[in-house]
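BUG: 3D viewer hangs when loading the predicted structure for this chain

Environment: internal workstation, default settings.
Expected: structure renders.
Actual: progress bar stalls at 90%.

Input used:
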Amino acid sequence: MAPATMKTAVLFSAGLDSAVLLAKEAAEGHAPYPVYISTGLAWERDEQIVAFHLVDRLSAQYDIQPMVTLTVDMRDVYPASHWAITGAAPGFDTPDSDVYLEGRNIILLSKVAVYMAREKLERVLTGQLAGNPFPDASRTFFDAMQHALSIGLATRIQVDAPFTAMRKADVIRLGVSLGVPLELTLSCMEPQDGLHCGRCSKCRERRDAFNEAGINDETEYASPPAR
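Structure tokens produced before the viewer hung:
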């Protein structure tokens, strides 16, 4: 746990995990800075609208700083035909490997670290869960990044991932205990006018996690997820 005086940024995407992470950090008295980083992906317009609304709702309950929005355009790296650029998300029953975005956490942590150094923030939180298979989601990776960023910016940058021993169902239960309006979060790769599409693998993951948690899923889906 961070000292009460430590100034903390939270990588915030308006998704279920990052919303609960933000509320948890605020509940522990750290007045966190939610940081949304736009990289030019197809779902970001909907995501940013939800993100601002969520921070506003959570700020009525907790001491949370105004949301910061940063930009790193990745559309010159991912080809125009890439599913994350076109918005044609992989299907409902596809594996995690189909939604891998190379270097995503490298980019997010690098950008937020420069902001942190300028604003004198010491710690950044990211919401990776247990079982995340990607190479930039391991503790080894986070340790290496915080070491390199601290050297490169000549200031201490601490990278923490508090949920790596938790499954999404555990996060949902924690969110309920913290009063997070989970139905307002957005965890979808192909949102339809702000609604979950109900057809992508992230919608399936969300539906399954609510079922596992034994908590009613009040999410509004454009198409009801398959049962």
